[in-house]
Amino acid sequence: MLIGVPKEVKDHESRVGIVPSGVKALVDAGHKVLVETQAGALSSMLDEDYKAAGATIVGTPAEAWRADMVVKVKEPIEKEYQYFREGLVLFTYLHLAPLPELTQKLLDKKVTGIAYETIRDKNHTLPLLTPMSEVAGRMSVQVGASYLEKERGGRGVLLGGVPGVPPAQVTIIGGGIVGTNAAKMALGMGAIVTLIDLNLNRLREIDDIFNGRVYTLASNSYSIAKAVQHADLVIGGVLIPGAAAPKLVTREMVSKMKHGAVIVDVAIDQGGCIETAHPTTHSNPAYVVDGVVHYCVTNMPAAVPHTSTLALTNATFPYVMKLAQMGPGKAVQSDEGIREGVNTYNGHVTYPAVAESQKRTSTRVAELV
């Protein structure tokens, strides 16, 4: 199979879809890999490393996109739509629910869109979302602590406080991978941490994991409103796989928050769970609503690309190899997890949550392959 690795073009996206060790494994298995020049440079992976691993370095995006399968990190942006064509397999984060235009382009060109964020493993977890959720969860606290500084628009609060001065209050909405990792970081920095989730069994697990040091609340509009009102930092980490995130923190709740408080909405790549949140970029990451600083960058892990690329490709590469060895059709037929990852196929939306979010009809990919 001919596999393409284009350079990411989303604002400040510095990760890369395949690392040199992955290229070597693919080449050793008889495949050819086209890597756009400088694709891995910002992740500290140079063209020379890719050449040594057996890749062919190409000078333009168009050359990388002519492959049978393109492996990326983030969803294509408008300037990349021109490379879509029938028969192309696109393996990347897609986050289609809030992106109807991208969805339509994939359907029009009959691209097979396989999304990292909806692939499931044998335990029915999301193995390709997990590593970036770990990074984003940990980063959310670092970023939030930074924006609480007065010079960045915050309240001027030190997250861990000092003797005689209480620490900041951190409210985390969602007890999944993002929320758990955010809680680890916030506790480690000395904050007072409250975590809210709908699943009572998950709250019990959180209580055990942190030996009762994290305050847990069952999710409802009243408890969310109270916790958000008293928080210095609110972290949104709610996920419904493939679907738009529910708006759990309303505009009214935000208006009652402390002046200079900070919101970090990690769920923003699925539309966000804060009503006042809208996507931002690393070039212009934050804005203020009702005196509250909002940080809503859709590709947070790109700020630490070396760590993020290695963490991501550790998880994605076995699937890249399976798709290359078997071809997309056989891989989809034989692997239920990959089947869950297919969001578009031959002009059809094949992931129900995406279809529901965009008021489209969906077709099971098993009926199409």
Structure description:
The chain is of the alpha/beta class. The protein has two domains: 2-110 and 305-367, 3-Layer(aba) Sandwich (Rossmann fold); 130-303, NAD(P)-binding Rossmann-like Domain (Rossmann fold), CATH 3.40.50.720. The protein is 34% helix and 16% strand. The protein contains twelve helices and 15 strands. The protein has helices at residues 20-28, 47-53, 61-65, 100-108, 130-147, 177-188, 200-209, 221-230, 251-255, 305-334, 336-341, 352-357, and strands at residues 2-5, 32-36, 56-58, 69-71, 89-92, 112-115, 169-173, 192-197, 215-218, 233-236, 262-265, 286-289, 292-295, 342-345, 348-349. Strands 3-2-1-4-5-6-14-15 form an eight-stranded mixed beta sheet, with helices on both faces. Strands 9-8-7-10-11-13-12 form a seven-stranded mixed beta sheet, sandwiched between helices. α1 (20-28) runs parallel beside α2 and α5 packs across α6. The radius of gyration is 21 Å and the shape is globular. The model has no long low-confidence stretch (mean pLDDT 96).
Task: Tell me the structural class.
Answer: alpha/beta
Q: Summarize the biggest pleated sheet.
A: 8 strands, mixed
Which strand-content bin applies to the residues?
Answer: 15-25%
CATH hierarchy: architecture of the largest domain: 3-Layer(aba) Sandwich
Shape: globular
Q: Helical proportion?
A: 25-40%
**Rounded Rg:** 21 Å
CATH H level, superfamily name of the largest domain: NAD(P)-binding Rossmann-like Domain
**Total of DSSP H or I helical runs spanning 4+ residues:** 12
Order of helices and strands: EHEHEHEEHEHEHEHEHEHEEEHHEEH
State the domain count. Answer: 2
Q: Report the uncertain regions.
A: none
Rounded mean pLDDT score: 96
What is the CATH topology descriptor of the largest domain?
A: Rossmann fold
CATH class of the largest domain: Alpha Beta
Strands of the widest sheet, in order across it, are 3-2-1-4-5-6-14-15
What is the β-strand count? 15
Q: How far is the first residue's CA from the last residue's CA?
A: 19 Å
